[in-house]
Amino acid sequence: MPDQRTQSPRSAYPYDDAPDTDAAFRRIAALPGGPEKSALRQDVVCAWMPMAVRLARRFRHRGETFEDLKQVAQLGLVKAVARFDPSRGTAFPSFAIPTILGEVKRHFRDELWVVHVPRRVQELRRRVRSADHELCSSLGGRIPAAHEIAAHAGLTEAEVRLGQGALESFTARSLDSVPGHSEDSHPLTDTLGGMEPGFDRVVNREALRPLLQALPERERQILYMRFFCEMTQARIGLQLGVSQMHVSRLITRTCARLHDQVMADPRVPRRTA
């Protein structure tokens, strides 16, 4: 069996972008750190750059520009050249290709998801996408149904729908975009609902109801006359035989206590500035 270290890269590698850099790698391994070693590594990176570009081309049409894909693949190539050890007897492409592909896939996984998607859903997305492409070829271009994808990929239909939902998670549509092309189309912002203030009012009233019922009779009566009957403090004091100042103090104190009790209720929504 021939020694891998003496094999020509072109005889073991089916592509034309495999330069003979064995001697350069042996020289890099023998050199101490310094400008000469760095320059030789740079030459090797440039020699293998076409391979990185070819690998980046595999990932076109997946929501990322080709220029960015090339940069990521080239970064993987730089890492592969820096880490490669020719003494292990492995051809450089066998080491570099997984390194470059791993860098590109990591870029997709960590940088391009507009919506955060769990790792399990990312895997379902990959399997659904692959099964869909394979079935489209075998079905003459017809779009496969969910149950056909499930049978082909060994998934349940629920898993297929979950994976399909993640297919467009790399990109997001602007809220200012106008779906459709008719004159009646409106921006997506026009379809968004707003906060309904009436909901908070209902919650607050229901939270206050038992607290009002628990008040002493006199305080409850004063609040009823002031806020439900819209009587003035002077008129309330005249009817109860107390001063207007005393009525004011009772209202202020009672309302403050009710406010504190309502805010301590975890069911009441909080407004943040």
What can you see in these coordinates?
Keywords: DNA-binding, Sigma factor, Transcription, Transcription regulation. InterPro entries: RNA_pol_sigma-70_dom, RNA_pol_sigma-B/F/G, RNA_pol_sigma70, RNA_pol_sigma70_r2, RNA_pol_sigma70_r4, RNA_pol_sigma_r2, RNA_pol_sigma_r3/r4-like, WH-like_DNA-bd_sf. The chain is mainly α and 273 residues long. Helices cover 62% and strands 0% of the residues. The protein has twelve helices and no strands. α4 (66-83) packs across α5, α6 (119-138) packs across α8 and α11 (233-240) packs across α12. 15% of the residues are buried.
Features:
273 residues; disordered N terminus; mainly alpha
Could you give a short account of the major beta sheet? Answer: none
* Mean residue pLDDT: 82
Approximately what portion of the residues adopt beta-strand conformation? under 5%
Ends apart, CA distance between termini: 75 Å
Count of DSSP H/I helices: 12
Blueprint (SSEs and pairs):
Layout: H1 9-12, H2 22-30, H3 35-57, H4 66-83, H5 92-111, H6 119-138, H7 146-153, H8 157-165, H9 197-213, H10 217-228, H11 233-240, H12 244-263
Helix pairs in contact: 2-3, 3-4, 4-5, 6-7, 6-8, 7-8, 11-12
Question: What is this structure, in a nutshell?
Answer:
The chain has 273 residues and is mainly alpha-helical. It has 12 helices and no strands. It has helices spanning 9-12, 22-30, 35-57, 66-83, 92-111, 119-138, 146-153, 157-165, 197-213, 217-228, 233-240, 244-263.
